[in-house]
Amino acid sequence: MITLKEGNWRIPKWNRKVFAVAGGLTNYRKFCPEMKIEEQAMVAFRQMLENNDLRFSPVEIKGLVNFLACGSFADHFQDQLLCEAKVTDYLGLDPMYDIGIKTGGATGGSTVLTAAMAIASGYADVALAIGWERMSEVDTRTGNYYIATAACKDFETRLSRIYSAYYAPMAVRFAWAYNLSEETRAKVAVKNHLYAYYSPYSQQPGKYTIQDVLNSPMSTYPLRFLECCAMTDGAACMLLCDEKTAYKLTDKPCELFIAGGSHTLRVADRRDMEIPLLPHETPEMYRGLRKKEGQRWPGFESFAAARFAAYFAYRMAGITNPLKELDLVELHDAFTISDIQTYGDIGLRPYGQEPDYIESGDAYFGGKCPANLSGGLIGTMHAVGATGIFSGVECLWQLQGKYDKFHGDRRIWDSFGKKKPEDWKSLQVPNAKQALWISHAGVGSHVTAGILRKAF
Amino acid sequence: MASKRKTTKYTGKPAKVLQSEPAIVIEWPRSLAHRHTYGKLSPFFKGLTEGKLLATKCVNRECGEHRLWLPPRADCPDCNQPMVWEELPQPIIGTVHTYARVEYAGAGIELTTPYFQIDVELPGVCTIFKGYLQHGTPEIGMKVKACFRTEDPSNTILDMYWIPVPSDADVRS
């Protein structure tokens, strides 16, 4: 049993406020041969500098940057060690210091966390968080194997060599423990593919029915292909600043809080432990949770890393009731099941009632707290090192009221060689003030929870 | 000096061009063999080839965790003291905690698909041990028995598998 002491529970605190002011994405695709990875990083960087209504010119902004956090998940994919040095040079940011960040699927979140720590500590006034992945460097099955080396190499990797096989047991167990239907899982896939349909950046848009999802080919039972994230080539970046610089650069800065949690890579080793409570939860809520034989928390049903990330981030940002105080969320929907599991971890529903977040309609556009209006990982992208930055950028643009600007502009669709759908609709959340995004690795080995708050 | 220097010759194998439009994409072959150590867990993997399942246990009296660890680890994560080995008594009967049917596996898979991966609870063990079911269809709560690939072992975790209980003892792969 993991027992925590006082120091472990300390709530992270910035020494000074941190703000996000701008973001950039790329045209996410399975295979992007026309650009090298640093060239894709440039595309995201240019969008960030040129199209975010910043008051300074791109060259002036570059003149303010004094730190870079660079995220990429697997050296296997880039097949280029110290890729961050190539990117920093390519963006023309030499000799500013860049640190390469690697925490699997949570790399993007950890990259933003690192850049934020640089601002909060005073190391930098302006920091760039940038991430990328070029997963098409190998064929899909080799890519699946590479990703599966992020399972325990001695005890797990050889037992499937594909990541869906490490989430599928969680789906089976969760359905048994908490009555999750296949239809509810499929609804997550339908929703996120649909929201991707409205995004020019998306790789896997589609108008599917629940039956389409359930009839799609099986990856690992019970997870179908349409329930699994994309494998993507692409990049994303976000510009962070201290308070003074933020208001100089933009009239729409958003304050940033972000914290993380980690847990053993092997789900097998997640011994039963006490559930750390979120601000709105009480111990009584979970008295009957472990009612079935062999149940443990977090076990195969939940992610302690996500719970700890939320535990710290909510307190850091002063959030007392997430469902009430968050206007939207971007979750790490690598698989439908991991998306659903996370609803409990971050308190959108109490543990055991996660499916209700979907079934109630809360998770949809127009609902209480819509999730993954970007299309998420299932619909839009999972260029691993970029993902946790992409999700944050989508939150930022929502709070800045720029969903339409970045998703509805026909010129963006045209520049990607895509046709803007005739029935395109805006997914701008009216008057959104606060958003959360999750960046998640392994089978829940690392998770960051980032919160952006409108500061204008 | 310059006159003595031999001409530098290209000795490589030309890279295969996979496509040339809209950009040149070449094949970059990779064939590597790593030297991977099982380190202090070597007794576990040797045990599998001998038909034994070895777990580790913390014997530090001050520590709060005295159950077995499977997968084993040489050192206790709670008190950071070295642990000791303990062999599980046979027959090793576990309970299916959860499972998955792998249909689409990644490159290099060494099992025929589809197959069932199972996560097994074992009495006295604090962890849940991942493996595969050689035959039959798993369900949560089902009893399974550990078997070993002692002849022609793979020298990997695949030297252990599970079969349903009760089962035909003569079933062989």
Please give a structural write-up.
- The complex is a heterodimer of chains A (456) and B (173).
- By secondary structure, chain A is an alpha/beta fold.
- Chain A has a domain at 19-138 and 233-249: Peroxisomal Thiolase, Chain A, domain 1, CATH 3.40.47.10.
- Chain A contains 18 helices and eleven strands.
- Chain A has helices spanning 37-50, 58-62, 75-78, 83-90, 107-121, 140-148, 164-178, 182-197, 210-215, 243-249, 304-317, 322-325, 336-345, 355-359, 376-380, 384-399, 403-407, 410-415; strands at 19-24, 67-71, 98-101, 126-134, 218-221, 223-224, 233-241, 254-262, 328-330, 434-440, 446-454.
- In chain A, the strands form two sheets. Chain A has a nine-stranded mixed beta sheet with strand order 3-2-4-7-1-8-11-10-9, with helices on both faces. A two-stranded antiparallel sheet of chain A has the order 5-6.
- In chain A, helix 1 (37-50) crosses helix 4 (83-90), helix 5 (107-121) packs across helix 16 (384-399) and helix 8 (182-197) packs across helix 13.
- The mean pLDDT of chain A is 97.
- By secondary structure, chain B is mostly beta strands.
- Chain B has one domain (40-164).
- Chain B contains one helix and ten strands, in the order ββαββββββββ.
- Chain B has one helix spanning 42-49; strands at residues 17-19, 25-26, 54-57, 68-69, 84-87, 93-102, 115-121, 128-133, 143-148, 160-164.
- In chain B, the strands form three sheets. Chain B has a five-stranded antiparallel beta sheet with strand order 8-7-6-9-10, with no helix packed on it.
- The model of chain B has no long low-confidence stretch (mean pLDDT 94).
- At the A-B interface, helix 6, helix 7 and strand 5 of A face strand 6, strand 7 and strand 8 of B.
- Strand 5 of chain A pairs antiparallel with strand 6 of chain B.
